[in-house]
Structure formats: C-alpha cells, structure tokens
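Fill-in record for Nodulin-like domain-containing protein.
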Amino acid sequence: MEIWFALCLAANGGAWLATAVLVTNMRNFPLSRGAVAGILKGYSGLSAAVYTELYTGVLRDSPTSLLLLLTLGVPAICFLTMYFVRPCEPSLVETNAEQVHFMFAQMASVLLGVYLVGATVLDHVVTLNNIINYSLVAIMVLLLFAPLAIPLKMTLFPRRKGPSESSECSDNGHTEPLLPSSSESNLGNFEEYDSMDIDILLAEGEGAIKPKRRRPRRGEDFRFREAILKADFWLLFAIYFVGVGAGITVLNNLAQIGIAAGAVDTTISLSIFSFCNFFGRLGGGAVSEYLVRARTLPRSVLIICTQVVMIITYLLFSLGLRATLYVSVALLGICYGVQFSVIISISSELFGLKHFGKIYNFIALANPVGAFLFNTLTGYVYDLEVERQKAGMVDTDIACHGPNCFRLTFYVLSGAACLGTLLSTVLTVRVRPVYQMLYAGGSFSQPRSSAH
C-alpha cells in the first residue's frame, strides 16, 4: 500500500511539474512551438539516463541513497528554480538571436545524449574507479546545465531591442497579456467591419449591450468544453491512443521481449530505446518546425511517416530474432519520441494556448488508457505461451522464449499502427488549411481573437 501511494504521488507530481514548465514555455515562445516541445520533452526523456548515471557513478548502486536523492533533491531544485518558470511577455517578431539560442539548446541536448550513451556503454564494458566515476558525473552536470549560458549571456551582454520586440520577463514582475485583448484585436482589424458592425462595437464599448462571443475557429483559443466537441480533438486523442499507447506497451515489456529473442543483456535495449526516444522527441520538434515554415505542411505529416515505420517495426519485432531486435528498438524509440513531441505542438496550434494545459493533458490521457489495454492483451498472450511451453516440464524458469511469446501481440500492434496511419491522414487533410493560414509566408501569424 505504501509503495502504491508513493508511486501515485510521484506520478501525479511529475505531471504537475511537466504541465507548469511546458505550458509556461509554450506561451512564452508562441512562434517556436515545435522547438520548445522538442527541447523540453527531449530533456525529459534523458532524465532517466541522468539518474542512472548518478545511481551507478556516485550513489554506488544504493537504492536507499537514490530514494533519498529523489525525496530531498528534486523538491530542493524545484524550490530554487520555480521563480524563473514564469510567464514573460512573448515576442511576436522572430529574431535571429532567438533562433541561435534554440539551436544552442538543441546542440547541447544532443551532446548530452551522446555522452550519456557513451558513459553507459563504458560502464558496461570496463570497471571504473571512483575518480573516473566522479569525473564522468561532473562532465555530465556541466553538459546538463550548458543551456544556462543563454540567460547568463543575455544578462551580462543585453541586446538593444526595438519597440515591437520583447521576449524577456520584466524586472518588476509585471507582465503584459500573453494574447492580444479583444479591444486591441477589434481596433487592429477595424477596417474589416461595415457601419453596422462599427455601431455594435461602439455600443459594446459604452456598455449599452453585452458583447457576444462567437464560436472559435481552428487556430484560435478554445475553451475546454468547446474543444471536446471538435472532431480534430478526438482524432488527436485516437492517434495518441494508438501510437504512444502502443509504444509504451513495448517499452514496459522490453526486458521480456529481449529474453524471448535470446538477448543476454536487456539493458542495452533499454539504453538504445532511451537515446532514440530522446532523438525522436528533439528531432520531431525541429523537423516539424521546418515543415510548417518552409513547406506549410501540417506537423501531422510526421505522424503519418512514423506510423508507417511503426507498422514495419512491429512486423520486425514479431519475427522474434535477436539480429533484428536492436534495429527494431531503435526505430520504435524514434517514432515514439516524434509522436510524443509533435502532438503537443499540434494541439496548441489547433486549439490555442489560452487553455492549452487542460486540453493537452486530456489528450495525453490516451497514453495510459492505450497502454493499459494493450498491456492487458500482451500479458494474456504471454502467460498462455508460458503455460504451453512449461506444460509437463519441471522447470523453475518462468520466462517465455521464442517468437511466439509476442507474435500475436505485435500483429495486433501492427494493425493498430495501420489504423493510426489512416487517422493521421484524415487529420492532415482536415487541418491543412489551418496551417496554411497560420504559417502563410513562412512565419507564424497570430489569428484574430474570438472574444467578440
């Protein structure tokens, strides 16, 4: 019971932290949503490898010390940094400096990911003494905090900004509205109205009549109850259910899948999946940003591509061969990571940033729901095969061996990926006009407010 309660608190606490950081940064940088989602989710994917390096290099494989670090260290870091996670006045003008800063953060995260893979492999190949272990951890910490060079540089060497250009938090704590108010929007689009509309606007301003709020169009700010009535919302939910839910199912059973395929050391598979998952999250954000700006293509095009690759990947898994295991794990990690980050940006662009936290977190519920259903099927098929293999045998080994352990499961997951491909294609066709409106001319265009 105590373990269940601790896991419940940890899982929900992680969701709260992720929501606060993700929503705040998406609003602070509305013109670079793909890059923001990719970087934040990329570092989140690397966190397990970071803690593993601390566990083996500093804590000397002590579970008690690790739990103590998580209990005291994580809250301490949150208290020290929470002041800096706050809304800023977003820049509505793209600058070269901002693009360079995002590029620096992406390169730092890639370097950290490569370093963690190398350190993990080195730890498995040779026995390291304490001095080398501490040195490896120190280098990891330096790479982890490398992005702090950006705010330090902006503080020590501030850049003169024009009147329409601002993306930093004000020193006095006062922040401007993250989105233009209805009055500003009305005045900015005054020429779009005829004389009757002007009379109505003046009456609203004088309080003679109550302004009516029209239903938002895709790309504008939706309330949660408005978003759940849209087909695009449930298409995103279904795509998340099929793609990410199936991916987490494979991750949960990766050790058993490796044993069934004849792999001796399953930690290598986990390391490959972790790095490729990180690469997919970071690359998905960067590539989708290029697609929408240079080609005006919806980000969901990437989901179509990954779903097709996942069909082939699940069929490779169904062979149950050790020779194709690591390739399959790598492909699945990339596809899982791409979908994880791209759906964040899509939901913000279709339904706006004002209620992004509620809308995205509800869509994210498809992940555990899908994982639960697919895991139930996986466990049932696996147990049946174990009983069949052990029938009439006196053997203490309860593990399943051979391709039949997961073959039926991977056939089902491959079929689910086919369904995901179809749903992603439908979504792409539906939202293509939205992306042409938002990214006409190669840059993001803030849609007119729906408050009036």
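KEY FINDING: Residues 407-438 form the longest helix (32 residues).
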